Amino acid sequence: MWTIALLSASFLAAQDSRTVSEPAIPPTCTSLDAQLSVDGHSLAKADEDKLDTARIQRALDTCGKGKGVVLRTHGTANAFLSGPLELHEGVTLIVDKGATLFASRDPAVYEKTPGSCGLVNESGSGCKPLISAQHVSGRGRDGRWCDRWTGGEKLLGKAVTWWDLAEQARSGGRQQVPRLIVTDAADNFTVYRITLKNSPNFHIVYNHGDGFTVWGLKIDTPKRGARNTDGVDPGAGSKNITITHSYIRTGRRQCRD
Q1: 95 class by beta-carbon count within 10 Å (0-12 exposed, 13-18 middle, 19+ buried)
Q2: I want to staple 90 with a disulfide (CB 3.0 to 4.6 A). Which of 65, 71, 103, 147 is the partner?
Q3: Please, which residues bridge with residue 42 across strands?
Q4: Burial of 209 (0-12, 13-18, 19+ CB in 10 A)
Q5: What CATH code is assigned to 53-104+126-208+237-245?
Q6: How far is CA 44 from CA 37, 41, 147, in A?
Q7: How far apart are CA 196 and CA 191, in angstroms?
């Protein structure tokens, strides 16, 4: 279910040459108002095709370095719905208190090639992550509140969930399901004060980067139903990593620091 182990602060410090202190929320470049509302633990079915992807990405594309795009509540509206988003150097995505960013349950929006996501086959990775940060330095992702998948809910137009596909793959093949946050060669990347829930696959993957800070993270994904939902995976070629003041529950184990 998950592979990260609880490390003491002293051990983490020995592995990180940086002097790490609590991150700070940067100034705002743009605030986006929610237009959807949470219905129970998810979105109303009528809202499942009302994607906010384009307006969130447009705000990230036009935001200056050292500033952040804030997703905020507006009256009774408190939810956003998105497909894949790409962060830019020095730009922060902030999910403000009370707001929730939902990931779309439509496999088509994550496809790398037509028909490559939302099934079990023998191919390589066929799905884009919800949030990606690739091949830049000084890039960050800060969060304040909640970022939520619906890994245990049925995919749009299908009779299975993301987690069902993972179970089907036990008998052969590869689950073609998205990860939540994936970075590659993204230095000085920060995850701060955010809750992540119910990813179809790994929650956070950090590869080939120098400087990764996770502070005040909460991951809460149930034991039953979820498979391969690792919490935080510092991967190949990464260094100077601190994971602290966080709680991670993704199945068989729990970690708190």
Answers
A1: buried
A2: 65
A3: 39
A4: buried
A5: 2.160.20.10
A6: 8, 10, 17
A7: 11
Question: Does residue 89 contact residue 119 with C-beta atoms inside 8 Å?
Answer: no
DSSP assignments along 210-248, one per residue: EEEEEEEEEEE--SSS--S--SEEE-TT-EEEEEES-EE
With a CB cutoff of 8 Å and minimum separation 6, the contacts of 109 are 51, 53, 83, 84
Q: Where are the domains of the chain?
A: 53-104+126-208+237-245
Residues counted in the chain? 257
User: Pairing mode, if any, of strands 100-103 and 79-82?
Assistant: parallel
pLDDT tens digits along 209-224: 999 999 999 998 887 6
**Interior angle at CA 230, CA 217 and CA 61, nearest 5:** 60
* Angle (CA) 227 231 233, round 5°: 110
**pTM of the predicted model, to two decimals?**
0.88
C-alpha to C-alpha distance for 127 and 144, rounded to whole angstroms:
26
